[in-house]
Amino acid sequence: MTETPQIHPEHHYTTRTGWLRAAVLGANDGIVSVSSLIVGVAAADPGRGAILVAGAAGLAAGAMSMAAGEYVSVSSQADSEKADIAREAEALETMPDEEERELAQIFQDRGLSAQTAALVARELTEKDALQAHVREELGLHEVNAANPLQAAAASGLTFTAAAAVPVAAAMLAPEGAILPAVVIATLVALAGLGALGAKTGGAPMLRGTFRVLFWGAMAMAVTAGVGALFGVAV
Fold first, then answer.
1. SS3 letters across 161-210
2. What is the pTM of this model?
């Protein structure tokens, strides 16, 4: 009796790309933009009240902006994908033979012989022609399909959580130590974000951590310079 071969299970990270990009972007922007705002205001030397108001306003406005921006941009992507799928469905209706030859050519360009490519194209067409063309010709797959609500929620929530770090640091720090407290808290949070994002996506942690730290520090430095130079809230 022949045993059924066991399929080797594999764990891939591409299934997370739909929400991971939006979540990392939201968290990074939340930390960097709000901390830079607080640092710029603090460098202009106002009181704690003005600093906290600026931080809270930046948190609220930024979270809504990130969520709305992600929803609109990903919705546009989804609309474009749906339009391409509709055009492909129409082409399959009006010229099925040409579309099958096009599918066979795709497989041939990938290294299959002409005979094998034609056979694969025929069998896939008989099973689900539209799905085959969506996947092979358009490069679309349900795993990484655009999801506007998921992207908006991930971006808005992570922005809020991350932006709360510099606001909390400014709130809890002594009156004369707000600026260094916010900078230190932000750098620690950025390092954690970079490491967490890299680990979640299966990428090298050191590279991801350094990249996030570097650009976050640059943003704070520039904003602090502007605040110190003009002595006004920016």
1. HHHHHHHHHHHHCCHHHHHHHHHHHHHHHHHHHHHHHHHHHCCCHHHHHH
2. 0.68
Note the Cα 233 to chain centre separation in Å: 30
What length is written for the chain? 234
pLDDT in tens, 96-128: 899 999 989 999 998 899 999 999 999 989 888
Q: Kindly list the domain boundaries of the chain, sorted by start residue.
A: 24-230
Q: Which ranges constitute the DSSP H helices of 95-147?
A: 96-109, 114-136
The DSSP string of 34-91 is: HHHHHHHHHHT---HHHHHHHHHHHHHHHHHHHHHHHHHHHHHHHHHHHHHHHHHHHH
User: Do 103 and 132 contact (CB within 8 A), yes or no?
Assistant: yes
- Please state the separation of Cα 217 from the chain's center in Å: 20
